[in-house]
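Ticket #4471: complex job returned nothing on first submit. Input attached below:
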Amino acid sequence: MGWAIALHGGAGDIPLSLPPENRLPREAALRHCLDVGIAALKAHKHPLDVVELVVRELENHQNFNAGKGSVLTTSGTVEMEACIMDGKTKKCGAVSGLSTVVNAISLARLVMEKTPHIYLAFDGAEAFAREHGLETVDPSHFITPENIERLKLAQEANRVQIDYTQPIQKEVKKDAASADVDSQIGTVGCVAVDNEGNLATATSTGGLVNKMVGRIGDTPIIGAGTYANHLCAVSATGRGEMIIRGTVARDVAAVMEFKGLSLKEAAAYVVEQVPPGNVGLVAVSSTGEVTMPFNTTGMFRACATEDGYSEIGIWPDSPSK
Amino acid sequence: MGGWAIAVHGGAGVDPNLPKERQEEAKRLLAHCLDIGISALRSNLPAIDVVELVVRELETDPLFNSGRGSALTENGTVEMEASIMDGPKRRCGAVSGLTAVKNPVSLARLVMDKSPHSYLAFSGAEEFARKQGVELVDNEYFVTEDNVGMLKLAKEANSILFDYRIPTIGTCGAGAAMDSPLQMNGLPISFYAPETVGCVVVDKEGRCAAATSTGGLMNKMIGRIGDSPLIGAGTYACDLCGVSCTGEGEAIIRSTLAREVAAVMEYKGLNLHEAVDYVIKNRLDEGKAGLIAVSKNGEVACGFNTTGMFRGCATEDGFMEVGIW
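Support reply: We reran it on our side without changes. The output follows.
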């Protein structure tokens, strides 16, 4: 028992040759967000508050694909989505198609708490944000030069990039990443459990580079990218279309419940069912366990438990304390 | 192989005082849609084509809450959503926020077959529709007089009308809906409120498919998305089964109802009927919903914890049934 927290900044084809100027700021951001989450848990904040807080931090960091730093649609615009869920009550909130709301995750929380609905999108969601005085800015706020470049490359390659895909034609060439374009970005998420077994999860993203306008991914779909119940809380990242059809987040909890697997076993099992290179997730259980499996080259991740353990990593077997 | 099987629904939650002629009308439409599905199955159309065909028929008829006859948003407009899923490879397609697409389920199919994505919404979805050359109409096409009346009542009661219904005294259809007072008892009340539609099919090869379509909640907020387009919630199909749900959208989402049926079959080894019973009994908490399901073995099942569900089902061995209660 005891509290536990895990967060991610996206799973994908993160090259081992990732230059320090791209790697270090992200590691620092993960460390910072982990510290924010740990402090909140130590201050006995409810996991719902903790995950929202941490995801807000991740959204504000322009190096991750959420909030500022979101990838661009095929029209060069930003359409953000997010989702939050409380394990005990299974109350949830989701939003899609946001272009001016600074913190999508907070809007998702508002939908959960202030409407009879679960999911609001596009104009309706934006109007709701304004009605409730949520911080909104000009859409240009979210757009970064890296993402403009990334979109350009994707359109030239005439391809849709998943969270972390190198802009090359053939199979993964670890050294062939374009020097100019930093393609190492991804969805963000956070899961937390306190020492009373309260669980929560939150996920936020800008989606796929060069996605069609109006495309919704797995993040705001309860059971796909985000899910929490009395057993565990899960936040997934990777190829949205695969995560949706695999009902990834829901399945982790289902496998624990119906097959009696531990959190680690259940999460590993579910990740294995998805074709390689497509998914990663972070999860915590009601008893304070944590796991962060992925079947991609890497996943920006961090976790900590009350007994003092903490880990920050990108590739398999490369955690740093 | 157990042969083909098909089930359709026109929504869960029925006013016990629903006038007889409305009940007959609904049953006729359900039987008609079943017949269409059965002919298609006999001509060896694959499950995925059959569910689309049948749901198109349900969308086109204004009787139920989808396509024409959809529930209205708070602004009196229509925003439709739908999803479709093909069991064998779990391919899926979904759409939301449609205002001009005549058959949302067909657009969902196109998303699945002709786009790199699984889910498109609002203006992006309609732009895709335009590019694909699907039939587009004015938003007014979908709006029926009955629903304009229902919206007015809902606003007066300042409540949202859910798919399910609570019995009220002295109701007798749309006409009386204008006269009888609505009650505020902590739960929304509706008269003959329109319903989500869906179809599940398993074909002779044992392939399952599912599709669901709706206009959503009466008086819903602009931009509100319900369970119908969410894979795992309102719709799900895999190797084992095909499921389509209806009822309280929020409850269906929270319980990932459609996926749940398949999950207990897959992970607990329950058969279709046991899975449907289990899920309806244990997974809805206070929520009110219903669902139809088929299994790869040619079984068909339905379950609901509401006062009724418009439904019909048929199997290759000649069984056929249409019901409400």
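Confidence is low (pLDDT under 50) at residues 163-189 of chain B. Closing as resolved unless it happens again.
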